[in-house]
Structures
1.
Amino acid sequence: MLFVEVFVQQTQMLLLVTLLLIDLVSTRGYNHHSYGRHVRNIDSMGISVLGEFNQDLAFPRFSEPIPNVTVTVGRDALLACVVDNLRGFKVAWVRVDTQTILSIHHNVITQNPRISLSYNDHRSWYLHIKNVQEVDRGWYMCQVNTDPMRSRQGYLQVVVPPSIIDKETSSDMVVLESTNVSLTCKATGYPEPYVMWRREDGEDIRYNGENVNVVDGEILFITKVSRLHMAVYLCIASNGVPPSISKRVQLKVQFPPMLSIPNQLEGAYIGQDVTLECRTEAFPTSINYWTTERGDMIISGDKYEAVSMDNGYKKYMMLKIRRVNKSDFGSYKCVAKNSLGETDGVIKLEEIPAPTTIKTTTHFTSLDTKKGNSRGSTKGTSNDNRVNSVGKEDTSIAEYDYDSEYTLPSNGPPPIQEPPGAFSGASRNFNSIAVAIFFLFFSLFFYFLEMVSSDEGPR
């Protein structure tokens, strides 16, 4: 009997424990089916347990992220927030860094007059910022007032094109040659601008012993500046935001005059026009003039013409002397002066022989014929005509003068050509032979007549 009572008590306790476990499982929801997904949670004791994250599909959700926006300062910006299934919930825009509420649903809360709001189909919510300033750069949040609150963030990047700070940038400079020069250029912008130097005329810069086209950095430092550095320099600032900007800085280098003469000895003959040349370099610009051997300053007029042409710090001087005579031979001086010094150069003008003029006269004889071929032969209608044309021999003289001037070369004057129409030597030889044959024929004819007459006489 006792054994049966113990068995019944144990069976009841086992049944009770089983019912408690079933109740626990049902209350903890291990097999409960609902909208959501199973996740692993950590309880307060640090023990990992399975739990269910219940996400109600009826709640609002963001259909896309808020894109980051980059805007140039002074332009307008637009931030978009797209929410699906908003239902009765409300949308708000918040400036994250300052925790400033900009708008709630249809109403703009901020006092900033550049900010406005627009929406479309209760789904797309747009935040407008006009005339964007650098203070507008930062994160912006779109919120939905669910519990817990749901949000998305987007970044507004405000870029600023470069600008040059005039008060911290060099202006036009005038320095002495062989001194050190430093040109400075300061620029602002966002992102920070990149600054470089180059010459406006595109020529290379003599920098640290090398010829370079561009020098990077805010400072252009030139040691022992020379006249070759004299130019307009451009400070150019850029940061990828158009437009780039530049400033012109003119560098002038002062030095005393320097002079060069292409030909220190010139020759001319009487009556010739001659030109003397002289080249100078100076800054400040020099005063240039010519003097005679006696020191008299030469003034342009009928006899002299003095010309000066500028090319930057270089000058070209020219003195033209018209119709040189004996008194013009001697030394001439070109002079250049400025506030730093004076220099001069001497050119000597010497007499040279005038070129020889060659005059040639040619005489020749030709046969007077009615008709002649290229060989000078005659044609007629009878023998009498042929006899008369030979017996009536005329001579005509054609004269050709060569008055051209020649500067005598080393191998003598050019050969004299036969004038047009003159007989060549072969033609004249042919005419002499023809006349001799004709006279021989004429003599034989008279000899034949004499023989005939002697035969017909008395026997």
2.
Amino acid sequence: MHQNSLRAQYPLQANRYSLGDAYSAGKKRLSLKLGVSFFLFGLINNVLYVIILSAALDLVPPSTPKGIIAFCNIAPALIAKLGWPYFLKGRIRYARRIVACCALSFIGMLVVAFHESLYSRLLGICIASFSSGLGEMTFLQLSTTYSRSVGGRSVGYFASGTGAAGIVGAFMWWELRGLGVSTGVGISAVLPFILPLAYFFLLPRPAAFTHQSSASYTLVPADDLETEIDDDLSAQDDVESRVEHKVAVRLSAADKWRLVKPMLLKYMLPLCELSLSFLEYTINQGVAPTLLFTVPSHGLISKIIHSTRDYYPLWQLVYQTTVFFSRSSISLGLKTLPAHLLPAPAIIQFVILLLLVFESAVGLLPEDREVGSIFLVFVLISIEGVCGGLAYVNVFYCINQEQPDPASTHSPEVIKQEREFKIGSIGFADSSGILLASILAVPTEMELCRAQVARGKYLCQGL
């Protein structure tokens, strides 16, 4: 009653409050749809990669090295990330790419599911891997089509989805493996259809944020002012770029080299040989399989570990869980790392690699304190996952937020293509590190096992 009388006395202010409420609700709805869309993009695009790795023991004969699965699961993705941004010219057709990624993933998983020959399954894995590499690059490039404020959040949601893929993929195969390869992998083959559905029916277009921001006449806080201006400029650029599209604007090889050169040390090296990939996957594939201890007879750990073979899945679970939370740091509202601190996670991971190698070969603690050693390995792998996740999401976030080259500011279409190229061009650094680590992992595991046997620890030979 009192509220209605106030509205009757101050109709203009009441209308402003109503518009403000509608604007706030609309903004939250758009943000939610954006977040869910990019989270699904990251989750579905990466989950097949995890399912393939989890199913490696079931996909190849016992006599076949399991490393060949890891190789076929990453090499085609590297080819996609290396070739596509550098050789593609002109505008990106996102709808066509996403539909193509869906089709390739579906076909690849069907080949794996319904062909029992080794070479056919490896071919299917390669097809799905190529699709995953192309998809990751495409969705990161898609984030640059939004204003920087919205695009930064999109990168955070996508990274969170890729982190969740590790947990979801491992859990899915744990549940599906009892159905056999044909049924289990066949069921997972339908997952890629979520990508085009999310793109066409859920994802808000960049213009939606501009329309939402211009629909309100209420005052906005000072820290939101830059966001609103950025959205308006993005809409203006979009209109102008449609006009420029009639004149085919394409980045030349010289333009691309000019853009890549400053990113080599600033972004690519921290993402490749150091942080996310090389050190991380050397630990996971080469060192973690040798971090074995006797089966505990009491305590909490005895309820988790029932055989020596349980240690490796445990370390993978710890790693995937911490990667998920750290890749979700931006979507959870945590502050990003400054650009000058991007190499820090790599340095920490290098120390962790040395400690875990020493633990495997010699032992950090006496043999009568194995519980302490298990806890120490648990902590180190947790830190490894946190560092890897932070490196991934912050590198791509920083690239998304970079200002355009002053020489290109006269052309909105050139600015758009440069942003897309820059964020798509560094993905090969990540995959190169993983590929190199998968090659190094086999001799690393063998040498560490020899070192354990030499000191009278034979657990690695019993797996």
3.
Amino acid sequence: MEDIVLIIGAGPSGLAVAACLFLLSIPFVILEKEDCTASLWKKRAYNRLKLHLAKQFCELPHMPFPSNTPTYLPKDAFIRYMDAYASRFGINPIYDMHVESASYDEREEVWRTTARNTKTSEMSQYFGRFLVVATGENSVGYIPDIPGLDTFPGEVLHSSEYKSGLAYTGKSILVVGCGNSGMEIAYDLSSYATKTSISIRSPLHIVTKEMIYLGMVLLKYLPVYIVDFIVLILSKFKFGDLSQYGIVRPDKGPFMLKATTGRTAVIDVGTVEKIKAGDIQVEPSVLSINGNDIMFSNGTTHYFDVIVFATGYKSLANNWLKDDGHLLNEEGLPKERFPNHWKGKNGVYCAGLSKQGLAGISMDAKNIANDIAEMILRERRITK
């Protein structure tokens, strides 16, 4: 019992850690608040979503994609892969368990976790020598507090609720947020004869998936500033000067920006062409809302029927993890920077919270499982 690992979350991070533990013959229990694995992918992803990185950068540990798998997987194919992954490594989460608190019992030297069954409201306790926070960076959708938002009479939804533009034909829609989700949702909406606008508040890099693939290969051999220089040259050649459309580039290159801030370059799916053609209007940041009228920071006001907030997510792990704030900050993300972020005190770890994508999840899972195995072996030697 004392060597059991409690894993909180059955998304890609939890599955990856579980598989690594399975191969080391270390027992584990996974608690998942939803009724399925990978709930973000199965329940909160829009229909046209594809993995933005080539498949070799998206594999979970110890199970490569089949050779006939397309280079860039659509959502449904990746879901099938994760289901097969769970089956292969005998991963059977306990579903519908919402963790209320997890604290370390110093006398017993175990993590005491209290969870509520979301269907019956019954409370249960679980004990483990180790605890892995694998609830992901995307626990709950974030919608900013914009003055007057409560006066908007139309539909307001987060990108996690968006599936397809088919339901919005003929409507005037504002997408707030210019990350990959926002730009792709804007593209999808404009394909269904909607009047589509996107609010872009911050500088961003726009690249193609081929540029990112090239950059990730080159990073194995070249310094990041040279790789950024090459990718920026290619981006300028492909897209030209986008500042006339309200899109400006950050000072840091795309890979340096990712490494230092976690902000990812936008991989274009055709949105830029639609912006240039006038099918998608670019607006600056939203200043305020008055009914259907939305005012922007440049002083203009436009009428909209629907607002889609592609403004990211928040991690809620710091709400239930009681470790005196050693592992996570107030945003529910690791206090330590990558690559030293994954380990806390008293056998607590986090996986998939470093903003390094699926490749970072694999690294975390292997590090955590190996560290737990070494700790168990060391403690057993001491007690002999």
4.
Amino acid sequence: MNKCLCRLVWCRHPGNMTEMELITVALEDLLNNYDKRIRPGYGGDPVEVQLNINIRSLGPISEKDMSFTMDCYFRQVWVDKRLAMLNNHTHANYTGFIQLSIKILERIWYPDTVFYNGMKSYLHTITTPNRFIRIFRNGQILFSQRLTVRAMCKMELRKYPLDEQNCPLHIGSFAYSTQDVTYFWRPETPVEMPKDMRLSQFDMLGTPFNYTSVDYFKGAWHTVLSVDFRLSRHLGYFLINVYVPCCLLVILSWVAFWINREATADRIALGTMTVLTMTFLGLESRSDLPRVSYTTALDIYIAMAFVFVLATMVQFAAVHNFTKHGYGEPMPPPPGGHTTEEEEDENNEREKLLHSRRTGTRTARLKRQHAISRASRHSATNGAGNSNGGHHFSRVSMKRAASKVWRRLTRLSRKKDEQETNSVSNIDRVSRIMFPLVFLIFNVIYCLVYYSL
């Protein structure tokens, strides 16, 4: 069909042809002997391919996969003299370029450009493949296509989330070495970005680009064009979701210093709650990070906050062990029995004395016929009774003195207990000042170290 159309057009005089007919004739004439398997200028100088990237959006940037995604217009420009339309069949008014369908790519040569650090990229095909090609009069070809590129970005996360990352994009030919194809950035605008583009997690610091040659195979050097996306991470998300909750949990654990030391259950419940919450927060913060073998800045902060929360539990153990011993506990009974028993003993002793006196009056009424013997016996008996009575009175007096001393000690101990049961421990007083001060110093040192590195 094309040959018949071409013959019909050739039979007509060029002055009677329309511009479309002239372009059709020119293309058929150029592609008639065109071999797309051979690069332009084969055997001579390498083909120079100029690149330009117009970035429409950048992101998401994943620390877990160590990758970044970008949506861009990827443009390539090269010269193929075999497609130059400097012949008599071209219309005289034609001085620019012709816009062709992408079907022309099936019949011409174009560079096999790839992204060396690409992971999973694709061409936009809705509603049609997003690509176009233009052929200029002198054989220059502009090939543009819209791509979503997902590339690998090796991140150093020791300062995460106070870090800056450099994500490169490496571009070059897959098969052609520098002897056949060389790549260059377009001198006007190598990398274009919209002025109103904003990233959700990062600030764009710059997009420097460079040109290198890499020996991918033995003796086969390939041109590599690179553009580096230098990014600075936003701290707002981590302040809201990690740093501020950690600080609030640490401050909440300090409430135990103002709780009565007798309220053991309350202080233990508060400490256990803060420790478990801090553990959950630390595990949740690691879910978006890869399993790296080193600690990040965020890990260090969470670990130190966990140490402060755990230290409040240890502090309460010290308060309980060193200052609560014996306070609020019932006093043991006295060695000689209770006070009521002592009074009963005293009553018994009095009854014995009265009974002994009655016995003495009865013996005086006896007959005087044995007065001397009875008097001697009576004196001996009275002497023995007096000695036993003295011993008895001495034991009673000792018990009375001991009971009085014990009552005084008990009264003093109870007054002391009443004063010290609700008193504040010196350890709590020191902790109210030391814990906030040390935590503040830690935060200052943390900011100075990770912002200055």
